[in-house]
Specification:
Blueprint lengths: L2 E2 L11 H31 L8 H18 L4 H4 L6 H19 L13 H4 L8 H18 L46 E6 L10 E10 L5 E10 L9 E6 L23 H7 L3 E5 L15 H18 L3 E10 L1 H11 L7 E7 L5 H9 L6 H12 L14 H7 L24 H9 L11 E6 L7 H13 L4 E6 L4 H7 L1 H13 L9
Parallel strand pairs: 5-6, 5-7, 7-8, 8-9, 9-10
Antiparallel strand pairs: 1-2, 2-3, 3-4, 4-6
């Protein structure tokens, strides 16, 4: 049934390499355990004799090697920021220790975990003796391993995913769009973040010790319109810290513009085990659908300001629904969600409990992004752009941007989810000079990061082999944000595309997140 309703500095002797080790220790060792146990079980079951017959196993080895390189300074924070005194010596020592530790952990579950200032907050519940907890352990480790193999984002927003051929795509199992998502028209007024209703749900593919519920809450569009928005809240098992569970507000990438495209209507929540991994590490997770997806609030928009409001207000709504959720939170998102996470940091809405944002593979000027899309295989995103501009500016005429032969594809996009086949569309169906339309230009202006300083620190991640959002494009945007005084750690990963960087950066992301909740000074490599 529904239910209605001061920073402390990092000690000088602890360098960035040690901060990174928090994440590497949590990730690399469980992956090694999974290789020692789960791969053997699968080999016995299916008759696989080597890793070439089990692509996921090969991916785990590649990801584990990447995590090791990150901890040793190859791709991690240690290479991109100035080490504290003694940091280089610590990095070399840490590398030697991890080499022996990762080899030994396969033979024994008695792992040693590098102590963290936030161990009491994020202590993973992975090593227990009962068979029930062993199943949970494998579930959590599987989540970590799948993150490290680089789960692909939406094929429209991340075209450069050569590691995962399109023919291997399998659409996620979905759930019905129920009356839970319905609201009266007009919507009864409510404050931003006010909870409308909530319901527990056990139909997601989650470890049984992670609790889930759906929420419906009031949010705002960039135009100030009061809209209902749906979200999913994941709550860890066990007793929360005295201050409540720390929160990761997750902003998803593009999923489509039809109501049924909402991640909360997908049994895997649209991202596989990624969100469950955060919950197993001791974080409450709030994953908004964005306005227009799930909840009956009209056409959804790819607008960073509107999406940011949905992320911000989801946290207070989740706190109203779950008393064990604490006040401190960070935002995290890939692709479209990365822009939303940046917009949270730059938002006029200031929450003193907001600690920063992580943005991966999507931070760039929107005008450059769409012009880039128009020249490539992701040009159907221009149909979504036309739909977004029409929603935000009713006076806009779609015919000013699209030729008549593009209209069937435009009408179809409003009924489809990412990955579905739409009528043929090409950039030849765009009107010449479409980018100079005054409404399109106004939209671009409102979706350009770095026009004002961020009031929270940022971790921005990019793959240098990302063809969808090239690293140099992200670099120009980050440079402008730095000039505004924003505190940014910008990490670029050589030879990785949007898919690969999601896994390779996992240790850096978790290390950065843990440091924010611990109250350490934020690193930056802005000039």
């Amino acid at each position: 049934m529904w239910t209605e309703i001061g920073e402390k500095p990092l000690p000088a002797q602890v360098g960035p390499a040690v901060r990174l080790a928090f994440g590497v220790t949590l990730l690399a060792e469980p992956v090694a355990l999974l290789i020692g146990h789960q791969h053997q079980a699968d080999a016995d079951t299916h008759g696989w004799e080597n890793e070439d017959q089990y692509p996921a196993f090969k991916g785990l080895n590649h990801a584990r090697a990447g995590a090791g390189r990150a901890g040793a300074g190859g791709l991690g924070v240690a290479e991109r920021t100035a080490l504290a005194p003694g940091g280089q010596r610590e990095a070399r020592k840490d590398k030697q220790q991890k080499s022996g530790r990762c080899a030994a952990v396969v033979a024994s579950r008695n792992r040693k975990v590098l102590r963290s200032p936030t161990d009491n907050m994020t202590k993973p519940r992975l090593f227990r003796s009962s068979s029930r907890d062993a199943r949970m352990f494998l579930t959590a480790v599987t989540a970590v391993s799948l993150i490290l193999t680089g789960l692909p984002g939406n094929p429209e927003f991340a075209q450069a995913q050569t590691a995962t051929p399109a023919k291997e795509f399998r659409p996620p199992h979905t759930l019905p769009l129920t009356s839970f998502y319905d609201t009266p028209h007009p919507l009864r007024p409510g404050k931003p973040g006010e909870l409308i209703r909530s319901e527990p749900i056990d139909e997601y593919n989650l470890p049984f010790e992670v609790s889930a519920l759906r929420i419906l809450y009031h949010s705002r569009t960039a135009n100030g319109e009061d809209v209902p928005v749906s979200a999913v809240v994941l709550v860890p098992d066990g007793k929360p810290p005295a201050s409540g569970w720390p929160v990761i507000a997750y902003a998803h990438e593009f999923r489509g513009v039809a109501r049924q495209c909402a991640p909360s209507l997908m049994k895997n929540l649209g991202v596989g085990p990624r969100l469950a991994m955060y919950a197993n590490l001791g974080y409450a997770v709030v994953a908004t659908d964005y306005s227009g997806l799930g909840a009956d609030s009209g056409t959804p928009v790819l607008d960073m300001q509107s999406n940011a409001f949905d992320v911000i207000y989801s946290v207070s709504a989740a706190r109203a629904a779950v008393a064990q959720i604490g006040p401190k939170w960070i935002a995290l998102g890939p692709f479209q969600g990365g822009l939303a996470a940046v917009a949270v940091a730059e938002s006029e809405v200031r929450d003193p409990n907001y600690l920063g944002s992580v943005a991966t593979s999507g931070v760039a000027d929107v005008q450059q992004v769409y012009q880039h899309f128009a020249q490539g295989s992701s040009n159907r995103m221009l149909l979504v752009l036309a739909s977004t501009v029409k929603k935000l500016y009713p006076e806009f005429q779609v015919s000013d941007m699209l030729k008549d032969k593009a209209l069937p594809a435009y009408q179809r996009v409003a009924q489809s989810c990412g990955g579905e086949t739409e009528p043929e569309f090409s950039n030849a169906m765009l009107k010449p000079g479409w980018e100079n339309n005054r409404f399109v230009k106004e939209f671009f202006s409102g979706n350009t990061p770095g026009q004002k300083p961020a009031h929270g620190p940022l971790l921005v991640i990019s793959g240098e082999a990302d063809l969808a959002i090239p690293a140099e494009m992200s670099g120009k945007t980050v440079a402008r944000m730095c000039k505004q005084g924003s505190r940014i750690l910008f990490l670029k990963y050589p030879d990785l595309d949007a898919s690969g960087v999601m896994g390779a950066s996992a240790a850096d992301q978790l290390s950065w997140i843990k440091a924010r909740f611990a109250g350490y000074a934020t690193p930056s490599n802005c000039p």
